[in-house]
Amino acid sequence: MSRTTLVLVHGVAGAVALLTISTFWLSALTAELVLTTAGVVTVRMAILYAVPALVIAMVAAGASGARLAGRSKSPVIVSKRRRTMLAAINGILVLVPSAVFLGIRAHAGHMDATFSVVQLIELAAGAVNIVLLTLNMRAGLSMRARRVRAGRANA
């Protein structure tokens, strides 16, 4: 795969991942604050069914980013790697299990104190991932802008 294609895949996958997590977060918060129980169930089931798309986007962003970064020791790349690893761990250990738990509990009508605690944990973990992925996107766009400016200076 050419570098240009890899950069495109990385950017699109990262943007899809960030947009998906943000949509999940806003939907869950909105559902809890303003929707009926049936609305919460619908939102929770939609999130549960959409988790595989998020996982695919995260894997694509991570794999393409790793390929683009190679063995770079650049501080920007090292920071992006660290944030990506934290987001992945957060997703695997907190967000995906929470989405599954909350989807199953909502579907079964068990929206009790345990549901609320897990939901608060999920919202906090989701906010962390939104921040991490936003910082990565900002760093990536900054690197791209520097590369474009350098290309113009050499032309």
Structural class: mainly alpha
Largest sheet: none
Run of helices and strands? HHHH
Q: What percent of residues are in strands?
A: under 5%
Task: Indicate the low-confidence ranges by residue numbers.
Answer: none
Calculate the mean pLDDT score and round it.
93
Overall geometry comes to elongated
Number of strands: 0
- C-alpha termini separation: 25 Å
Please tally the helical runs, counting DSSP H or I stretches of 4 or more residues.
Answer: 4
Transmembrane segments: 7-26, 46-64, 85-104, 116-137
Keywords: Membrane, Transmembrane, Transmembrane helix
Protein name: DUF2269 family protein
Organism: Pelagovum pacificum
Structure, explained:
By secondary structure, the protein is mainly alpha-helical. It is elongated and about 60 Å long. It has one domain (3-154). The longest helix is centred in the last third of the chain and has 42 residues, at 113-154. The model has no long low-confidence stretch (mean pLDDT 93). The chain has four helices and no strands. This is DUF2269 family protein.
Features:
155 residues; 4 helices; 91% helix; transmembrane
Summarize, please.
It comes from Pelagovum pacificum. With 155 residues, the chain is mostly helical.
List the topology elements:
Layout: H1 3-34, H2 37-69, H3 75-108, H4 113-154
Helix pairs in contact: 1-2, 1-4, 2-3, 3-4
